[in-house]
Amino acid sequence: MAQKEVKGRIASVKNIQKITRAMEMIAAARLRKAEQRVTRLRDYASAVRRMTRQAAEAAGSIPNVPLLAERDSEDRVGIILFTGDRGLAGGFNSQIIRAGARLARDLEAQGKEVVFFASGRRGVSSLRFRGYEPEGAFEGFTDRPAYANAREMASAVMAAYVDGKVDRVEVIYNHFVSAMSQTVTRETLLPLKEASIMESGDGDRDGSAPTGHSALVEYEPGPDEILERLVPAYVEISIFRAMLESTASEHGARMTAMRNASENASDIIADLTLQMNRERQAEITQEIMEVVAGAESLV
């Protein structure tokens, strides 16, 4: 490879490194805000979960709420995938797609019909590429989701469940642990009798400990009516929390991926610089040999 060509490759890699470093800084700034949002929402979601559980216990028998009803059979299963609108985030999107596709294959092998809902352009396009047309496609907000986005998705999912289009709903998202670690998580969202909000013996998903006793609460209006209001709110909060977890995970994964790309660019630059110096040294040696040979021919 000519020395001029090596110089051109070094300049090109340096330009790419500037971009990856800038993207790393942007992702780091967004990560801090996303982490704060998801940390605050975890406490609120846990409180709603406890309130819903206590209202269900106080109601005695499960009220006639469609979202609380269990189906005789679960022939149609809805799967909600939370991905990002953009790539360049390492395996963030691909691991969610693989988990969803793996679950779909397992369910189809059991003779069940799979209905997909997807948040994020990457998830929507990947599902369509694999031959699945999402029942609900929600795009354009994954960098900073708002509660209105969660409400829109929750409305579509709850309507599909109430109308009998799905008998169970599973959620797959990246649970944010740290900037370096995200865990693919699968949870049952509907029916709520199978979801974690109806369990009284375990702590919440975020690690808070169980209280060990039920609070004595007088409900006005009655627990049945309160539960009817709480259940849709909990579905919305659950979806919003998955969105925020996914957003924080995406920024963390992108920051890590861009940092690794910058470090790899530094290694490439070092290798190319060494190669260029060797070629320069070889050219100088060749010129000296030519001068010496020319001088010897004149003697």
Q: Which strand order does the major sheet show?
A: 3-2-1-4-5
Cα separation of the termini: 36 Å
CATH architecture of the largest domain: 3-Layer(aba) Sandwich
The total count of helices amounts to 5
Mean pLDDT across every amino acid position: 85
What spatial form do the alpha-carbon principal axes imply?
elongated
What is the count of distinct domains?
2
CATH class of the largest domain: Alpha Beta
- What is the number of E strands? 5
Q: List the helices and strands in order.
A: HEHEHEHEEH
Major pleated sheet: 5 strands, mixed
| CATH-assigned homologous superfamily of the largest domain | ATP synthase, F1 complex, gamma subunit
* Rg, Cα atoms, Å: 28 Å
Low-confidence stretches: 197-215
Helix proportion range: 55-70%
- Structural class based on helices, strands and sheet pairing: alpha/beta
Which range does the strand content fall in?
A: 5-15%
What is CATH's topology name of the largest domain? Pyruvate Kinase, Chain: A, domain 1
Any overview of this molecule?
This protein is an alpha/beta fold and 299 residues long. It has two domains: 3-24 and 258-298, Helix Hairpins (Orthogonal Bundle), CATH 1.10.287.80; 25-255, ATP synthase, F1 complex, gamma subunit (Pyruvate Kinase, Chain: A, domain 1), CATH 3.40.1380. It is built from five helices and five strands; from the N terminus they run αβαβαβαββα. It has helices at 3-59, 92-109, 121-129, 147-162, 223-298, and strands spanning 76-82, 113-119, 136-138, 168-178, 181-190. A five-stranded mixed β-sheet has the order 3-2-1-4-5, sandwiched between helices. β2 (113-119), α3 and β3 form a beta-alpha-beta unit. α1 packs antiparallel against α5 and α4 (147-162) packs across α5 (223-298). The chain starts with a helix and ends with a helix.
